[in-house]
């Protein structure tokens, strides 16, 4: 299976409020790097998304960590965010 799809909450407690804790940021970077080295793409589901602020914080960290896919139900919002 070329896509790794895993639950955010299994790895991270950060909910998008405030800054991501350094240890969790390192973990995110490491997970994504390891998956890419194996030739897979990765996405996390169940990311915190109750508020626009949370969604933008999570998306910012995922993009910064070079996640391949970002899953969301907020398609118009992410379209605006990415442009």
**Beta-strand level of the residues, as a percent range?**
5-15%
Mean pLDDT: 95
One letter per element, helices H and strands E, the order comes to: EHEHH
The DSSP helix count reads 3
Low-confidence stretches: none
Radius of gyration: 12 Å
What's the structural blueprint in terms of helices and strands?
Layout: E1 3-7, H1 22-37, E2 41-45, H2 52-64, H3 75-82
Parallel strand pairs: 1-2
Describe the model.
- The protein is an alpha+beta fold and about 80 residues long.
- The protein has one domain (about 5-80).
- About 45% of the residues lie in helices and about 10% in strands.
- It is built from 3 helices and 2 strands; from the N terminus they run βαβαα.
- Strands 1-2 form a two-stranded parallel ribbon.
- The longest helix has 16 residues, at about 20-35.
- The termini are far apart.
Labels describing this entry:
globular, 12% strand, 3 helices, 45% helix, 83 residues, single chain, alpha+beta
Structure, briefly:
Helices cover 45% and strands 12% of the residues. It has 83 residues and is α+β, with helices and mostly antiparallel strands. Strand 1, helix 1 and strand 2 form a beta-alpha-beta unit.
């Amino acid at each position: 299976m070329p896509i790794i799809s895993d639950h955010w909450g299994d790895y991270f407690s950060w909910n998008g409020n405030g800054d991501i804790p350094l240890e969790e940021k390192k973990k995110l970077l490491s997970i994504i790097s390891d998956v890419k080295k194996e030739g897979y793409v990765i996405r996390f589901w169940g990311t915190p998304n109750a508020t626009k602020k949370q969604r933008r914080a999570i998306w910012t960290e995922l993009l910064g960590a070079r996640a391949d896919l970002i899953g969301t139900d907020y398609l118009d919002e992410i379209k605006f965010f990415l442009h």
